[in-house]
Amino acid sequence: VGLAGSEYTDTELRERWEAVYEPLFAGGVRLFTPREIMTTVGGGARKHIQPSVWIDLWHDALLRSAAPRVVVDDVRYPNEKAAIELEGGEVWRSVRVDLPIPEVQDTSETACDHLPDSCFGAVLRRRTGVPELLAQVDQLILARPACVLPEAS
């Protein structure tokens, strides 16, 4: 069953995502949005530890993993893209074309904007939410030649 077969609506997906952050909300009043928390923590770690902090953690997990394939669902900086490609991966760009671009954005939202589409393995342009994105991902995966994995020894 493909991911596009998900029975969740955009609203349900958003509600499920925000439920993960419930402990960060005091008395039912939202102090920070999940996005604000992630950009603050993520950017702070890049600034105060080192720019490759998230790459290093990802790479360590990749080395420990026995998975034949890995999906990285969020790539925000050119050095993250380069690390994936160095491991033989392919990075796809997803662009929501029906929404205006916010005037003020965190660097993590724009760091790869200067890269041309030709730098990416695929570019997904969409006008609706997650279900359309997942359908496009399914189509791209199904259009690729089958990848035969070596048998486990």
Structural notes for this entry:
By secondary structure, the chain is mainly alpha-helical. Mean pLDDT is 80; it is low at 1-5. It has helices at residues 10-19, 34-48, 53-64, 78-86, 107-110, 130-143, and strands at residues 92-96, 122-126. A two-stranded parallel ribbon has the order 1-2. The chain has six helices and two strands; from the N terminus they run H-H-H-H-E-H-E-H. The protein is globular and about 55 Å long. It is 42% helix and 7% strand.
Short structural description:
The protein contains six helices and two strands, in the order ααααβαβα. By secondary structure, the chain is mainly α.
- Outline the low-pLDDT stretches: 1-5
Strand content: 5-15%
Give a quick account of the main beta sheet: strands, pairing sense, barrel closure. 2 strands, parallel
Mean residue pLDDT: 80
Strand arrangement in the largest pleated sheet: 1-2
Number of strands: 2
